[in-house]
Amino acid sequence: MMRIVPLSAVPHHASQLTDWLWQAFGAGTAREFYDSIIRSSLHGADFPVTFVALDADDTPLGTVGFWRCDLISRQDLSPWVAALYITEAARGSGLSAALQQHVLAYARERGHEQVWLWSTFGGYYERFGWEYQCEALEFPDLRVRVYAQRV
């Protein structure tokens, strides 16, 4: 049985999630950057919030964030679904969809009407109801695809 909880409920997994995000998204970025995001999500503020999917043995399977901003070049857009990561062993199990739906429900409960997400590739998030909006730049010069979804 899998469950999705805020990282603040299981803070002992913070270091593991930091490692995942740094390894998956951290090219050229210090591990401390991801650690600061993860650590700041433990304080109960509105942003950022980190969710973790756990199996029946309390082993982390994946994570996703709910952030105020995830794209410096588009600070006019908020909030964002960010840092979606699924362990290799859990890929293909529907966990990505479950984590996305969890964040969308969380955003809806907090009165948000729309959420944003960016990706370096197309064809994946469309399967989950995300609609391509535009191209933008991730710092300093990476072209990315910006998606939105009504909640």
Question: Features of this protein?
Answer:
single chain, 151 residues, alpha+beta, Aminopeptidase, 3 helices, 7 strands, 32% strand, GNAT family N-acetyltransferase, Acyl_CoA_acyltransferase, GNAT_dom, acyltransferase activity, transferring groups other than amino-acyl groups
Secondary structure category: alpha+beta
**Named CATH topology:** Aminopeptidase
Q: Describe the strand arrangement of the main beta sheet, using strand numbers.
A: 1-2-3-4
Helix content: 10-25%
Just name the CATH architecture.
3-Layer(aba) Sandwich
Report on the biggest sheet: 4 strands, antiparallel
Number of domains in the coordinates?
1
Relative strand content: 25-35%
Radius of gyration: 15 Å
- In CATH, what is the class? Alpha Beta
H and E string = EHHEEEHEEE
Q: What distance separates the N and C termini?
A: 26 Å
List the uncertain runs.
Answer: none
Instruction: Report mean pLDDT, rounded to a whole number.
Output: 96
Number of strand elements: 7
The total of helices stands at 3
Task: Give a quick summary of the entry.
Helix content is 25%, strand content 32%.
